[in-house]
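Figure 3 (text version): structure tokens given as input.
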């Protein structure tokens, strides 16, 4: 008769299923974090196409002109007459850039008039938003 030991020792194993679950959780977390970092504070306009360097500004002030003659400053609707008064408190200093996001169908004269009003509010540097090819 063969007696067994009262305690049997099992060899350790690495379970891979929980590790896969953790990796998928980290993947989803990083994907959602990167989506939340995108600038979703602008209005949908049809931008002209071109090539330019990427903008690396923390929180730019955006002047948006739509195809149906609407003007927005950081999603705040304004008119040409109230543009300078609304923009002046948003500009921290004269070196801050103003991003002009004009629809392809927006009248050129209206874009120029809005930029002139922004200049009277204290904006010195203008950046034109384009759609990359």
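Below: residues designed for each position.
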């Amino acid at each position: 008769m063969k007696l067994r030991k009262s305690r049997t020792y099992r060899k350790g194993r690495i379970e891979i299923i929980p590790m896969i679950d953790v990796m998928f959780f980290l993947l989803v977390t990083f994907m959602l974090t990167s989506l939340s970092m995108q600038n979703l504070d602008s209005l949908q306009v049809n931008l002209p196409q071109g090539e330019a360097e990427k903008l690396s500004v923390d929180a730019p002030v955006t002047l948006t002109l739509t195809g149906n003659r609407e003007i927005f400053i950081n999603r705040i609707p304004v008119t040409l007459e109230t543009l300078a008064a609304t923009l002046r408190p948003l500009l921290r200093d004269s070196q801050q850039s103003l991003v002009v996001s004009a629809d392809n169908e927006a009248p050129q004269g209206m874009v120029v008039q809005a930029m002139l009003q922004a200049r009277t509010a204290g904006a010195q540097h203008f950046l034109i938003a384009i759609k990359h090819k």
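Residues 49-132 form a domain with the Nucleotidyltransferase; domain 5 fold (CATH 3.30.420.270).
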